[in-house]
């Protein structure tokens, strides 16, 4: 069993990005600049946004964190985004999800200029991704592809089973794994809440990607011997032995599943750190105007 080390891989990618930034600086170019919008005070969201800002500093990017109270109106938020669309000093913007219920995330994602949409959530980026045109790939699926690629994992002709169909993970990774480029060329099955006999499907998987948010959903009897298992889930569960009172758990029962796997991601230290690295990569691509009209 080989552990897919997301932390190490993320650090390697961040070193590559930092080297490019140093090069841009040396040539007198503009340093990439990421802006992040956070609404409200959700603990998890604040942690992720802070991690993103710290990662920007690590690679030499500029970053701006715009933090609003959860009573900001949808129109006010949309106007902020319109301002950023016009601001040439900012290359990329992410709006941390979920948003408060009175704000439509669909509206927010549509108003953002798709050329600055480094999360890859704008309908134009989604469409371009599906069509195989230049687009920002959403950071988590992009990170999963990086892990498969950097560990030289064969994907061609494999049966990839994805559990979860969200717009930010399950659906895009399903499409990407079916594409005719490496990593891809897999035969893909998508499972969700209404899938009948989930275990029947997961047991067929050569590559199992799980993005649900239910700790321990995937037990050892649901996994084929020798499978590659990618666990995207990150749920905070109470743990009195930890200083902060909780720890992160994936969707996979790691202790019992890992011995059966050829490769597996841990949680934490698996997909999560890659998500941050690929957000930086997208911001670098934005600064280089790699996605344009
Ligand atoms: N490591 C990282 O970088 C990231 C981690 N995450 C984590 O990944 C997890 C999933 O996130 P996200 O995709 O946003 O979650 P969503 O809640 O948006 O989607 C969860 C998906 O799981 C499906 N589902 C729910 N219960 C079951 C079940 N019993 N069997 C099969 N499918 C089920 C849902 O089905 P239905 O569509 O029918 O509701 C849905 O499609 C979370 O723990 C999140 O924190 C998310 C993003 C990045
Ligand atoms: N607009 C938007 N874009 C997102 O990409 C987005 C979002 N909203 N909303 C929430 C989800 C969740 N998500 C994670 C990112 C990093 C880790 C991560 O770094 N996890 C570390 C641990 C971090 C910790 O210790 O808390 C790990 O798994 O090792 C996890 C989850 C991005 N999301
Ligand atoms: Mg969600």
TrEMBL record:
<feature type="binding site">
    <location>
        <begin position="164"/>
        <end position="166"/>
    </location>
    <ligand>
        <name>NADP(+)</name>
    </ligand>
</feature>
<keyword id="KW-0028">Amino-acid biosynthesis</keyword>
<keyword id="KW-0521">NADP</keyword>
<feature type="domain" description="Tetrahydrofolate dehydrogenase/cyclohydrolase NAD(P)-binding">
    <location>
        <begin position="138"/>
        <end position="290"/>
    </location>
</feature>
<keyword id="KW-0658">Purine biosynthesis</keyword>
<dbReference type="InterPro" id="IPR036291">
    <property type="entry name" value="NAD(P)-bd_dom_sf"/>
</dbReference>
<comment type="subunit">
    <text>Homodimer.</text>
</comment>
<dbReference type="InterPro" id="IPR020631">
    <property type="entry name" value="THF_DH/CycHdrlase_NAD-bd_dom"/>
</dbReference>
<feature type="binding site">
    <location>
        <position position="234"/>
    </location>
    <ligand>
        <name>NADP(+)</name>
    </ligand>
</feature>
<dbReference type="Pfam" id="PF00763">
    <property type="entry name" value="THF_DHG_CYH"/>
</dbReference>
<keyword id="KW-0486">Methionine biosynthesis</keyword>
<protein>
    <recommendedName>
        <fullName>Bifunctional protein FolD</fullName>
        <ecNumber>1.5.1.5</ecNumber>
        <ecNumber>3.5.4.9</ecNumber>
    </recommendedName>
</protein>
<keyword id="KW-0554">One-carbon metabolism</keyword>
<dbReference type="InterPro" id="IPR020867">
    <property type="entry name" value="THF_DH/CycHdrlase_CS"/>
</dbReference>
<comment type="pathway">
    <text>One-carbon metabolism; tetrahydrofolate interconversion.</text>
</comment>
<comment type="similarity">
    <text>Belongs to the tetrahydrofolate dehydrogenase/cyclohydrolase family.</text>
</comment>
<dbReference type="GO" id="GO:0009086">
    <property type="term" value="P:methionine biosynthetic process"/>
</dbReference>
<keyword id="KW-0368">Histidine biosynthesis</keyword>
<dbReference type="GO" id="GO:0005829">
    <property type="term" value="C:cytosol"/>
</dbReference>
<keyword id="KW-0560">Oxidoreductase</keyword>
<dbReference type="InterPro" id="IPR020630">
    <property type="entry name" value="THF_DH/CycHdrlase_cat_dom"/>
</dbReference>
<dbReference type="GO" id="GO:0006164">
    <property type="term" value="P:purine nucleotide biosynthetic process"/>
</dbReference>
<keyword id="KW-0511">Multifunctional enzyme</keyword>
<keyword id="KW-0378">Hydrolase</keyword>
<comment type="function">
    <text>Catalyzes the oxidation of 5,10-methylenetetrahydrofolate to 5,10-methenyltetrahydrofolate and then the hydrolysis of 5,10-methenyltetrahydrofolate to 10-formyltetrahydrofolate.</text>
</comment>
<dbReference type="GO" id="GO:0035999">
    <property type="term" value="P:tetrahydrofolate interconversion"/>
</dbReference>
<feature type="domain" description="Tetrahydrofolate dehydrogenase/cyclohydrolase catalytic">
    <location>
        <begin position="4"/>
        <end position="119"/>
    </location>
</feature>
<dbReference type="Pfam" id="PF02882">
    <property type="entry name" value="THF_DHG_CYH_C"/>
</dbReference>
<dbReference type="InterPro" id="IPR046346">
    <property type="entry name" value="Aminoacid_DH-like_N_sf"/>
</dbReference>
<dbReference type="GO" id="GO:0000105">
    <property type="term" value="P:L-histidine biosynthetic process"/>
</dbReference>
<dbReference type="GO" id="GO:0004488">
    <property type="term" value="F:methylenetetrahydrofolate dehydrogenase (NADP+) activity"/>
</dbReference>
<dbReference type="InterPro" id="IPR000672">
    <property type="entry name" value="THF_DH/CycHdrlase"/>
</dbReference>
<dbReference type="GO" id="GO:0004477">
    <property type="term" value="F:methenyltetrahydrofolate cyclohydrolase activity"/>
</dbReference>
């Amino acid at each position: 069993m080989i552990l897919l080390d997301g932390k190490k891989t993320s650090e390697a990618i961040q070193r590559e990005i930092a080297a490019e930034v140093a090069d841009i600086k040396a040539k007198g170019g503009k340093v990439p600049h990421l802006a992040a919008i956070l609404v409200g005070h959700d603990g998890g969201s604040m942690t992720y946004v802070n991690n993103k800002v710290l990662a920007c500093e690590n690679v030499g990017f500029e970053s701006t964190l715009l933090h609003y109270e959860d009573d900001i109106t949808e129109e006010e938020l949309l106007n902020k985004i319109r301002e950023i669309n016009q601001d040439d000093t900012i290359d990329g913007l992410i709006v941390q999800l979920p948003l408060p219920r009175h704000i439509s995330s669909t509206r927010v994602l549509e108003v953002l200029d798709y050329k600055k949409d480094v999360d890859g959530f704008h309908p134009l980026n989604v469409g371009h991704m599906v069509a195989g045109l230049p687009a920002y790939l959403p950071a988590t699926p992009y990170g999963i592809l990086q892990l498969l690629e950097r560990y030289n994992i064969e994907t061609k002709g494999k049966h990839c089973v994805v559990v979860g169909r969200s717009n930010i993970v399950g659906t895009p990774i399903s499409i990407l794994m079916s594409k005719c480029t490496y990593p891809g060329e897999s035969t893909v099955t998508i499972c969700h809440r209404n899938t009948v006999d989930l275990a029947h499907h997961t047991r067929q998987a050569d590559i199992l990607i799980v993005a649900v948010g239910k700790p321990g959903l995937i037990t050892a009897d649901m996994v084929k011997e020798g499978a590659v298992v990618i666990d995207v889930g990150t749920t905070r569960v109470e743990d009195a032995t930890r200083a902060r009172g909780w720890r992160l758990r994936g969707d996979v029962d790691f202790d019992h599943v890992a011995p059966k796997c050829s490769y597996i991601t841990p949680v934490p230290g698996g997909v999560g750190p890659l998500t941050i690295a690929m957000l930086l990569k997208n911001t670098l691509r934005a600064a280089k105007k790699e996605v344009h009209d």
